[in-house]
Structure formats: C-alpha cells, structure tokens
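User: Second chain of the day. Same drill as before.
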Amino acid sequence: MHRISEAVAASDEDDARAILGLILEDLGAGEPAPGFEDVEIEAENWAALAAYDELRAYFFAIGERLKHQMLGKRGQMRLASRLMAGLSADDRATVLTSLDLTEPVAPRPSRASERPSDDL
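Assistant: Same format as last time:
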C-alpha cells in the first residue's frame, strides 16, 4: 500500500485521479448480481460489500424510481423513517421544518392496474 501512495503522490492530478478511481472501482461491489435467493437478502449482501459511491448512486437512482411508484401511506412513512433514522433530534426537526407541507401535493394520475403498495 505504501508503494501505491508514493505512486499517487508522484503523479500529476489527472493521473492520480485515474489511479485512485481504478483502485476504488476494484474495491467496490460492482453492480448488484441477479437474485438467486430472497431479493432482500441479496440486496443486503450487495449493500454490505458496496463502496460509498456505489451506495449513493444506487440510492439516488432507486429514489427517483420510487417517487413515481404508488408506495401507499405506510410505505412512504417507512421510507421517511429509514431516511431520518440516523439523524439527531435537532437534525430531524430541521428537516421537518424545512419541508413545505403547506401546499398539498397533487396526486399523480393512476392507471387502473396500479395499486398502492405498503411494502418498503
């Protein structure tokens, strides 16, 4: 590891970024594998191996997809609860006061085949 840090330190900025990017890519979990077990177990296993950048990228991509799904009230509450679980009481209060809850959100038109899901 000492040789790697010396090589990075001796490199120009672009080369150093490329070297570090390759190292971090090699240490990551890669894309989630197709599920052969229970999907929740597979997701947990992947998340345990994923690098922070992978977790963050998939989290935001999945969040974008979930906001267009009909989670139902229970699913929305579980998602909000999980997102805020690591925050201190002061930080939770800050988040809640920063949300604009005065203007109702118009419901998305639904198709007859869609049903709210409470899963999450």
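Residues 13-27 form the longest helix (15 residues).

User: Great, on to the next one.
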